[in-house]
Amino acid sequence: MEDLALSLVKKRFGMEGGELLVGGVRAGALAEKYGTPCFVYDRRVFDEKLDALRTALPKRFRVAYSVKANPSQAILRHFISCDCGLEIASAGEFHQALQAGCNPRQILFAGPGKTVAELEVVLSNGIGEIHIESVTEAQRIGCICKRLGARANVAIRVNPACEAEGGAMRMGGRPTPFGVDEETLDEVLQLVLEDAALSFQGIHLFTGTQILDPKILVNQYRHGLGVARRVVSRTGRPLHRVDFGGGLGIPYFSHEHELDLTELRGALAAVFGEIESDPAFAGTEFMVEPGRFLAGEAGIYLARVNDIKISRGKKFLILDGGMNHHLAASGNLGQTIKRNYPMALLNKLHVPAEETVNVVGPLCTPLDTLARDVILPRAEIGDLFGIFQSGAYARAASPLGFLSHATPPEIWVDAGRDTLVTARGEFFGELPDNSHESTVK
Amino acid sequence: MEDLALSLVKKRFGMEGGELLVGGVRAGALAEKYGTPCFVYDRRVFDEKLDALRTALPKRFRVAYSVKANPSQAILRHFISCDCGLEIASAGEFHQALQAGCNPRQILFAGPGKTVAELEVVLSNGIGEIHIESVTEAQRIGCICKRLGARANVAIRVNPACEAEGGAMRMGGRPTPFGVDEETLDEVLQLVLEDAALSFQGIHLFTGTQILDPKILVNQYRHGLGVARRVVSRTGRPLHRVDFGGGLGIPYFSHEHELDLTELRGALAAVFGEIESDPAFAGTEFMVEPGRFLAGEAGIYLARVNDIKISRGKKFLILDGGMNHHLAASGNLGQTIKRNYPMALLNKLHVPAEETVNVVGPLCTPLDTLARDVILPRAEIGDLFGIFQSGAYARAASPLGFLSHATPPEIWVDAGRDTLVTARGEFFGELPDNSHESTVK
What we know:
Helix content of chain A: 25-40%
Oligomer: homodimer
């Protein structure tokens, strides 16, 4: 087992007789009951992460869950029940949010390239706030509102003029399709303020992703406050909302450390303490919208070892699921260097790691490699394999149809009670009846 | 427009008034009728590619289409109607092949990690041939056959001891999860020959992918014949079938050249002429199973320019579809260096290219970049954008659910007649009725 996997087992899940527990249920029992491959989620871990984040954030902060990380209905319902808002990035996610019972007022819509059709749907259904990403979008929303006789709450998404990097701020952000460059913010602000159909709520800072250094986050938040202050001096009244985006990371590889929330808490307390009674921020609500941070650690991908073979001295474990269900773990989702996700043989947590193996999925392509040269206990066919940190950007971002295997079901486990929340799905319709003779004698 | 895109327009599709034609229909008319984003396929290009391949192959060769490249029912039906077999890599693909009307005898099943459940399904439904990839699989198929009272036609997939590289053969192939190492072939062969439930049909050579050099292919085929000859000397009778796999490439980037089929034809004629009356190959059928080569050039991904913005001097075209529909074009499917697929503004083929832009999709992630620094005619919102070479490993290998946009429909165009063959799909169920008050006044 890799170090990070072991520490996640200890910190988040626990074990019994060398076997992983998920929400108090043995992983092997879940695999037996629901079949493999599948994704399992532990409700307690969602709670732990949200509680820890809320503890670290100053007063006046509100949390929205970023739906794109994992749009499973069970997860959306959970965060709604925890009084989170939802941040969406498409009309499809808007529908999913409503299906989960979200009040549309609690939904924020960000993302480049919103279409007219998408904007019409969300505006007709009372969305809470739309984050404007370009001049075109400001004009487009105004036009649609006039047509529908609606008024839109809008914020402007700002692409900061400085970029967070290694704890320091580098001046001169990069070109990006997201948000409005800080340098040209005034033009869009003017458009928004002059359009009676648009109700200006505040700004949303486009920040990075997968940030594990509290200093970078705090610097971004401080910079965001500066941008907000300049907007306030322009509009002459405090903003309703300043949204600092997501970007809070979780460790995926053994060299990465968890985000230090104690340090983050202290630093944010200092920054936001300074502005507590500042009239520029009187009544302003602050917002973060993490996805990965809230959902990533709660999910595990389970697959079974279906074959073991040695080719030219290298041992391969062949699982019954692979990159079709977990593209990120195969290194094909933005990684330039393929690194191994935290993983383990879930029924052999007590057995010493002794074999260096490659772990691959069942797809007929060399891309379907989940781990290279990982050290595991000696494996047997039938062993249960698990990939940790798989609650976000795992199933959601995978080419589920590639090679037409069944889609993996999702199982929600809440303190000993497991529930199937997404059924296994097949990539074909009804089989033709008796269309061909069977050769079975 | 990039050079390769222009040459594909000329060679395969044609244009009218500066607008691309697909099967004789204007691309803009297809986009208007079916909406964007979508995939369009030109039947004539499928025919051209299959005809060209069959012309290049010696007698006694049979072609099977590799379903994983694109399992669209329309495409499977087309290749079945052209007297091709189908090569599948999962039970899901088996079902899709049967749905398309394929005789199960014409189906070959290859791929590592076939599960017991998959093998039971195909064996109960009279599959033509299973390619054995490991000792475990040989034993597993034998057991299932005994249980079902069936007999299986099997071939052994061989991982050659030499590797094709740059036109030369390198001795000492790599470790791989695919097939049985040539060096240890005898062990599996022994198992297969001794098991009365297994009917040994021949061998299947695991070869490379995306090969554009005829010399490499011919060397592989020659090596394969050598392996086959050794097996024949072991079994004492000619093989029913020698399968040379797929691996025939198509050009994706401007520095790549089309596979020279004239050269391939000449070289194969020489190699296979030598063995024409060789008793070791008396009655042997030869097989190739391309996917990309047959389907890749016939498909184009259509998306519309939904926004245009400039960030810090860089112009971005934001489309209504992106990596969620075409992961390969975003560089996140095995590429180490992001290169631009052949692409064009399909309604401005006559307009000189003059602007260097980045082309991105609508997803709220920097990974959703389809082209960096591509030179195109000056674009306007509403322009129709096309990515060529998108008939294989495009829609099929993409994370269609990522950010919950609708899945792209597929349109089949056959000499002026367009047909919707796969409908647009949404990632949500029924919307709750009146669950929330609309803000529209």
